[in-house]
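Help!! Second protein's tokens look totally different from the first
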Amino acid sequence: MRIAFDELGLHRIQAECIEHNLGSRRVLERVGFQQFGMAPKYLKIAGEWQDMLMFQLIRPD
């Protein structure tokens, strides 16, 4: 995150995870990401289209 915000000057970082992947959701939330949406049938994984939860982290002021 330091590289994204400080060195690259990005305003936000976005991440997605499969809806039922509780471990990934917890990691994202623990480091400050906030869920902002859901993308239905976003990626085809193991032959099935998977819904993905969308998270973002906005650059702190």
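Here's the second one for comparison:
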Amino acid sequence: MYPDKLRNVLNVLFMILALAAFITYFVGKDDLKLFLYVCGAAIFVKMIEFFIRSNNR
């Protein structure tokens, strides 16, 4: 898979995870662990995309 296509897939995955984190923040007021896990996964995906973008230059 080319780096640009992989970056696009990772960006879409990040947006989905960010939206899921937003939803879990407002739905799960009692326990924020799920929000932290989803938000952490979104940040991890974005960091992978950033490293691919910086190494591709």
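Reply: Different proteins will give different token patterns, so don't panic. The chain has one domain: 3-55.
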